[in-house]
Design goal:
Length: about 350
Amino acid sequence: MDRTLLRAEFPVLTDVAYLNAGTCGPLPRAAGAAAVGLLHQAEQHGRSADHFGVLIAAQDGRRRRLADLVGAARPEDVALTTATTDGIVHVLQGLEWARGDEIVVAEHEHPGLLGPLAALIRQHGVHVRTAPLERIVEAVGPETKLVACSHVRWTDGQVAPAALAELRGRVPVLLDGAQGLGAVPVDVQALGCAFYAGPGQKWLCGPIGTGMLWIDPAWQDRVAARGPAYLNLEAPAEGLDARPWPDARAHDAIATSAEITTSANAAFDVLAEEGWDSLMAGAADLAEALVRRLEAAGRTVAPRGRTTLVAWSDPEPAATRDRLAAAGVVVRDLPGTDLLRASVGAWNDEGDLERLVAALA
Ligand SMILES: Cc1ncc(COP(=O)(O)O)c(C=O)c1O
């Protein structure tokens, strides 16, 4: 991988040590150009059949790209959502629940999972039980109807245990892939999950408003489409007889735009061009290099997996975050913890890490 060439695709990296893809990835120039180009076309020529033709082609392309990336058997097993949370909501609101049904969740999950779960507790009286991520499989009991946890935990980069795959056929697993998709290898078949929800705006470097949800074909008819709209219907002209697609397309976002979908595809292609294996290995190696630098500088790094997130303790995380930002280094603090978190992508380099550690001193 030629890191210099890759870095040149991302204008923000010229001046900033941008280490925040766990929030939003750096946007490649090609992604901005694709969106702006289509907006200008719409300005000049209006938005009619041609424009929607571009949208449909972009959506088909997006579904194919994402299906390839996660090892889906078919593109139709992937829904095009607006965000990780959108996919989580489709699963949680689409499954049937009875009062007292148990959901096992890992500790320290993100509000993107906890918010929709809290809504289920209020709506259906489900019971949510929390277990340590590393022991989540052992926490599953006869009453458990769903296991929901991060593939990669947002606070420290820990990875969900491989033993989750043993639950396949017993209890469905919903993986929150917000810090997994595009960051670490994702093979939905090997993970053994029933649902994998991920973002387009983080490690895929696309615009906000893009996400995906993979649904195991064995579960597609058990997740109701709560409000299927035009794009979710197999034959929209059939009026009240129109049925949702019998696959994940029933959960596509109700509205999306040609601009952001084309832009997301352009961002994806910049990364895919590098080769996902080398991109992910390069990012994980660089994250490990950051751990070594931080430890050498006397910092305590939170235990983590081989991922792209590195979190360390700081006495005043919010103030330090602002101080680093003023020095052109972008990381984030994690509210409710004493941690600062750097997100390391293959687009970063040793110079970015050096700037971070120097600015911390
Ligand atoms: C683990 C985790 N889950 C969910 C989310 C929410 O993601 P989205 O904005 O794509 O819904 C995030 C965002 O930071 C996250 O880190």
